[in-house]
Structure formats: C-alpha cells, structure tokens
Amino acid sequence: QQQVKQSPQSLIVQKGGISIINCAYENTAFDYFPWYQQFPGKGPALLIAIRPDVSEKKEGRFTISFNKSAKQFSLHIMDSQPGDSATYFCAATGAGSYQLTFGKGTKLSVIP
Amino acid sequence: EAQVTQNPRYLITVTGKKLTVTCSQNMNHEYMSWYRQDPGLGLRQIYYSMNVEVTDKGDVPEGYKVSRKEKRNFPLILESPSPNQTSLYFCASSLRRVAGGEQFFGPGTRLTVL
C-alpha cells in the first residue's frame, strides 16, 4: 500500500519556467512533509520541509504548498534552472515515528 | 566533515555469497536507517535503528539483517543474496526521530547479484 503518491514521474521544463510536483497522502497521522533532492550518483539531500500548521513555506526559489483538507502538498520551483535537474522525492512521517515514507520520485529535466 | 560513509560503493557478487555493506556516521546521530532505491519504486526502508542495540524492520526487511553494536556504525548484511536484491542501497542517519529533523544520506552502494 503506497501511502504517498507522487506525480508526475518525469517532468521537462524550459529554463526560467515553473516546475510543479504534486504529492498526496492517506495517513492523517502524518505531520511532517519533507522534500528531498537527488542528483545522479549522489544520495538524497533535504531540500525543504513543512508541517501542517502552515499552508506554504518558501525558501529561495523553492516553495511547498500544503492543503491539509485535501491531504495534498506540492513543490514549486520558480525560475527553474538547468542545475535544478535532479530527482525529487516527497516524503511524510508522523510524530513519534521512526519511519519516513517516500513517494516514488519525479525526474526533473530543465532544458536551456 | 560531517558525513555518512558507505563501503563498498559498487559490488558485483553471485547468488548465495554472504556480503556486508558497511555504514558509518561521524555526527553522533542516534537514528540510522537503510533504504533501497529501485527504478519506479522510489526509496523503500529496509531496517532502522533508534539507538545502539535497538533495531526494527522497515517496509522491505526480507533477506536482510542489521546490527547496531556501536552508535556510529550500522552494517547491512545479506546472508544469501539473490538477484532480486540487485539495487542501489542508501544508509541514512539523523539526530533524532525523522519528524524532528533532517536525514543525512550516504553516497549509495550499487549492488549487483548475478
């Protein structure tokens, strides 16, 4: 049973455009939603994270939007750059949990 | 430099030959975890450890063993590897429970079982 559904699987965006990756979850006990970025040949690294007490969190060109009632959250990358080309994973976990449940990943390609 | 290290980075082996992938962190983290990454399946947790001598199964523990005798080390053991364990493996650590902060991932170990 997949607890975090991520879409799309792959995404091609023109340089300067907006990249949008969506995730949906089922477990209402989840209360921490990080996004991880993975470059080829590297391990994932935390990009940005949000808790459900806020609807949006912005760090530079990266923004998480969170909709608690719909149980959805999304990553927006503004002014996308070729250096943003990577695989992005959304994830979720709950208070007291030792497990992080990942989405299946989105491979982003930003073309010049 | 704060980091998670894994060895080996690449390994080709044959069915049934026991192997160990080592993982070490120098950040004094309590929590460590092993994941496998497969195309189209994302990252799936194999085992995790909350502290020394405390481990528990993740989502896909079959065919794997772990131990946590020291805080900094968390080796992954495949007693009798099979071709379906061909995958990219990541070790990760965090200071506390994942909901409290960031997980730091190692560089990965690409395992091929023939």
Question: What layout of secondary structure does this protein have?
Answer:
The complex is a heterodimer of chains A (112) and B (114).
Chain A: E1 4-7, E2 10-14, E3 19-25, E4 30-38, E5 45-50, E6 56-59, E7 62-67, E8 72-77, E9 86-94, E10 101-102, E11 106-111
Parallel strand pairs in A: 2-11
Antiparallel strand pairs in A: 1-3, 3-8, 4-5, 4-9, 6-7, 7-8, 9-10, 9-11
Chain B: E1 4-7, E2 10-13, E3 19-25, E4 31-38, E5 42-51, E6 54-57, E7 65-66, E8 76-78, E9 87-94, E10 104-105, E11 109-113
Parallel strand pairs in B: 2-11
Antiparallel strand pairs in B: 1-3, 3-8, 4-5, 4-9, 5-6, 7-8, 9-10, 9-11
Describe the protein's architecture and organization:
The radius of gyration of chain A is 13 Å and the shape is globular. Chain A has no helices and eleven strands. Chain A is mainly β and 112 residues long. In chain A, strand 7 and strand 8 (72-77) form a beta hairpin. In chain A, the strands form two sheets. In chain A, strands 2, 4, 5, 9, 10 and 11 form a six-stranded mixed β-sheet that branches. The mean pLDDT of chain A is 93. Chain B has 114 residues and is an all-beta fold. Chain B contains no helices and eleven strands. Chain B has strands spanning 4-7, 10-13, 19-25, 31-38, 42-51, 54-57, 65-66, 76-78, 87-94, 104-105, 109-113. In chain B, the strands form two sheets. In chain B, strands 2, 4, 5, 6, 9, 10 and 11 form a seven-stranded mixed β-sheet that branches. In chain B, strands 1-3-8-7 form a four-stranded antiparallel β-sheet, with no helix packed on it. In chain B, strand 5 (42-51) and strand 6 form a beta hairpin. Chain B is globular and about 35 Å long. Chain B starts with a strand and ends with a strand. The model of chain B has no long low-confidence stretch (mean pLDDT 93). The A-B interface holds A 6, 9, 31-32, 34, 41-46, 49, 89, 93-100, 102-105 and B 4, 31, 33, 35, 40-45, 48, 50, 56, 58-59, 90, 92, 97-99, 102-103, 105-108.
